[in-house]
């Protein structure tokens, strides 16, 4: 259902045509993220994402922002621990303009000094906003606890100290040492043929000189469970618990995805939601999450509650974890859990903008794109015994780290 072309410089183009839409979604996925920074560079990848919109060799900020927005399109970007993505959604007749603009901001950014100073203040304000949102900051602080003394534990935004020091040369140096053309994918999903998609982007991409980097990510393997309590100016107690989990190359990753969905996934019938919200009304929301990385992964649970119900809520969380560690799922329970997870994946595939980014990341991470049906097969073949064994390992309370925010 998709086509891939690899250029001589290693850059890959992946495409899927969808005829029942008027839109085309396209974007660059770079295998560079915040974990690839040194301590002194903390926040530089995210700053680069911002600066990509602030000037290129042929465009100023206004022309970048206005190029697609004036056509009803959208231009955006984001940074994660392992990826930077620049992407756009436009009417199919404006695809070539989107491709040209994305190429320009990805490879021709000039990082004007005046714009660096202005954007520095924007990012510092972003940090202040983040600190004022304990629901967001507790997740990042749990990362720091779980991945202590490792780049995976650092905040994607960086620190005030590092962000305040970045210069134009820092961006050029970072790109020079981290950008590998074999780790760049341009992904297209929408109402356009492969030949037309290539026509707009293949020429410019082919002119980029091949580049291989000697840089290699530092693997994480020093986890020590920790417990930490912080007093903050909040009215509700917040609790987070988590640990390292399976990497994106581990054969158990889809089984853990299934297990996490049962425990605290997005549906209202997750065990944690039923136990804490529906039965007792102790929380407004509670969720668990599983995020695989290239060499490790992260599993976490997050919830907020009144201080007087914190202890009881925590006990209920542990009770649900204990059930999954000690009691095998029944045949009907497992079947329903599989159908729910498969249904959620199928609905997610209808989001073509997200699918475009999934294609790019999958090609970088695995060198291929697994058909959704193959993923469904892995979920359907999961046994109750396998789910129990994974729960015994991942939900072991002695291997969990705990972070609590208490009201002052």
UniProtKB/TrEMBL annotation:
| SUPFAM superfamilies assigned to the protein according to its UniProt record, in alphabetical order | LuxS/MPP-like metallohydrolase
A GO molecular function for this record? metal ion binding
Domain Peptidase M16 C-terminal residues, every copy:
165-340
Q: Which InterPro entries match?
A: Metalloenz_LuxS/M16, MPP/UQCRC_Complex, Pept_M16_N, Peptidase_M16_C
Q: Which segments constitute the Peptidase M16 N-terminal domain?
A: 13-159
Cited Pfam families: Peptidase_M16, Peptidase_M16_C
What does the sequence similarity comment in the record state about its family?
A: Belongs to the peptidase M16 family.
Query: Cross-referenced PANTHER family, in alphabetical order?
Result: METALLOPROTEASE, MITOCHONDRIAL-PROCESSING PEPTIDASE SUBUNIT ALPHA
Name of the molecule in the record = Predicted Zn-dependent peptidase
**The organism's lineage?**
Bacteria, Pseudomonadati, Bacteroidota, Cytophagia, Cytophagales
């Amino acid at each position: 259902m998709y086509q891939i072309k690899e250029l001589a410089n290693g850059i890959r183009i992946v495409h899927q045509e969808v005829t029942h839409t008027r839109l085309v979604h396209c974007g660059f996925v770079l295998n560079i993220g915040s974990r690839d920074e040194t301590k002194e560079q903390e926040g530089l990848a995210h700053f680069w994402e911002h600066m990509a919109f602030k000037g290129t060799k042929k465009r100023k900020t206004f022309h970048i922002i206005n190029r697609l927005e004036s056509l009803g399109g959208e231009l955006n970007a984001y940074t994660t621990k392992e990826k930077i993505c620049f992407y756009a959604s436009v009417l199919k007749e404006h695809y070539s303009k989107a491709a040209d603009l994305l190429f320009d901001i990805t490879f021709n950014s000039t990082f004007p000094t005046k714009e660096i100073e202005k954007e520095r203040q924007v990012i510092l304000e972003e940090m202040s906003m983040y600190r004022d949102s304990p629901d967001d900051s507790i997740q990042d602080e749990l990362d720091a606890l779980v991945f202590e003394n490792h780049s995976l534990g650092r905040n994607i935004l960086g620190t005030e100290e590092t962000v305040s020091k970045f210069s134009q040369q820092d961006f050029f140096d970072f790109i020079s040492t981290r950008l590998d053309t074999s780790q760049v994918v341009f992904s297209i999903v929408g109402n356009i043929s492969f030949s037309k998609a290539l026509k707009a982007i293949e020429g410019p991409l082919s002119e980029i000189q091949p580049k291989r980097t000697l840089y290699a990510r530092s693997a994480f393997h020093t986890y020590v469970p920790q417990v930490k309590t912080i007093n903050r100016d909040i009215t509700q107690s917040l609790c987070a618990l988590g640990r390292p989990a399976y990497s994106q190359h581990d054969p158990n990753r889809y089984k853990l995805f299934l297990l996490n969905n049962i425990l605290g996934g997005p549906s209202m019938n997750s065990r944690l939601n039923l136990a804490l919200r529906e039965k007792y009304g102790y929380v407004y929301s509670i969720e668990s999450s599983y995020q695989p990385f290239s060499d490790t992964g992260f599993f976490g649970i997050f919830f907020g509650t009144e201080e007087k119900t914190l202890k009881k809520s925590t006990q209920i969380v542990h009770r649900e974890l204990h059930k999954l560690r000690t009691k095998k799922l029944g045949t009907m329970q497992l079947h329903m859990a599989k159908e729910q997870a498969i249904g959620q994946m199928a609905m997610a595939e209808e989001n073509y903008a997200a699918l475009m980014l999934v294609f790019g990341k999958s090609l970088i991470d695995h060198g291929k794109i697994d058909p959704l049906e193959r993923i469904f097969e892995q979920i359907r073949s999961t046994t109750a015994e396998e789910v129990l064994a994974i729960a015994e390992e991942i939900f072991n309370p002695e291997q969990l780290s705990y972070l609590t925010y208490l009201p002052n």
